[in-house]
Amino acid sequence: MTSPPEDGAGAALAMVNAIRDAGIEPGQIGYVNAHGTSTPAGDKAEAQAVKSVFGDAARRVMVSSTKSMTGHLLGAAGAVESIYSILALRDQAVPPTINLDNPDDGCDLDFVPHEARQVSGLEYTLCNSFGFGGTNGSLIFKKV
């Protein structure tokens, strides 16, 4: 109940459904605001889910956990992380995962370590919020 499936199936399903509902392809997303609670089981499962959803593009998409800066805000986490995702689009700057020095095996994506990254052409972001018992949600935001 407190650990996700190792393959990240629930997380992957939430992302796939959000991408489908947005009418876009996974490769159009430039940044994923990960649920990223810094738990070994959760982070590995989410990384695996990103790999399964994005396929070859998984190595190109930037993924960070803004919880690394805020801590887990519980009921407010999804709202605050959505704001980070929207600001990334507005400012064309991807927030970092701070204090990421030794990622676990299997956590081998571009986690934007330590410092925000200025980008150009960021059009879509995906924001993940996952909870105990399978309360999984993903939102897509588009630059307008």
TrEMBL record:
InterPro entries documented for this protein: Beta-ketoacyl_synthase (IPR000794), Ketoacyl_synth_C (IPR014031), PKS_Beta-ketoAc_synthase_dom (IPR020841), Thiolase-like (IPR016039)
* Family matches, as Pfam families: Ketoacyl-synt_C
Specify the domain of life of the species encoding this protein: Bacteria
Main EC class the enzyme belongs to: transferase
Q: Which organism is it from?
A: Leclercia adecarboxylata
Q: What is its EC number?
A: 2.3.1.179
Spell out where the chain crosses the membrane. Answer: none
| Gene Ontology MF terms in the entry | 3-oxoacyl-[acyl-carrier-protein] synthase activity
Pathway stated in the Swiss-Prot or TrEMBL entry: Lipid metabolism; fatty acid biosynthesis
Q: Does the keyword Transferase apply?
A: yes
Q: Where is the Ketosynthase family 3 (KS3) domain?
A: 1-143
Q: Which protein are we looking at?
A: 3-oxoacyl-[acyl-carrier-protein] synthase 2
User: Tell me, which GO biological process terms does this entry list?
Assistant: fatty acid biosynthetic process
